[in-house]
Structures are given as C-alpha cells and as structure tokens.
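REQUEST FORM: STRUCTURE PREDICTION
Request ID: SP-0412
Submitted by: Lab K.M.
Chain count: 1
Length (residues): 86
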Amino acid sequence: MTGAPHQFFWEHRPVEFEASDSIAAALVRAGIVDFGSRPDGSGARYFCGIGACQACVVSVDGVLVEACLTPAHAGQQVRPARGSVP
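STATUS: Completed
RESULT:
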C-alpha cells in the first residue's frame, strides 16, 4: 500500500484498504474469505464480483450490502450478515 492506510473493521479486527477497494476486495486481500453464512446454509464469500449472485452479502454498520459492490470507507463496522440477504 502507498500512503497512509485506510481501515475498516471486520468483526472488530482492523482491515486495511486502498481508496478504490470494495469491501470484498479488501477482505480477500487481508486473507478473509469466509464472510459468514447464507440462509441456505452455504458460506458467504466473494464470488461473481458484479452483485449478481449475492454470495458476498455482509452487514455494514447494520445495513445489509453486497461486499463486492460496496466501496470500503474508513471506520465501517463490517460483520457477517448472519443468514440474511437483501
């Protein structure tokens, strides 16, 4: 990374990101590939990268979003969606 790192928090763990990163990209770069679970019991993860599959749904500051489409911002609190999809 160049310059001062930006950080959001995955289950209270700091995750650094670059200004153009999506939440999913930053999580994967940090070695976090398990984003929780989906209603069908399958694991939430970064898959299609375009929002079509909704496999990467997470909770950001209490709102369910697709991690692959959502820009990372400093200070966000990101958590598994706990089996919900938008």
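NOTES: Strands lie at 6-10, 13-17, 57-60, 63-66, 77-80.
Reviewed by: T.R.
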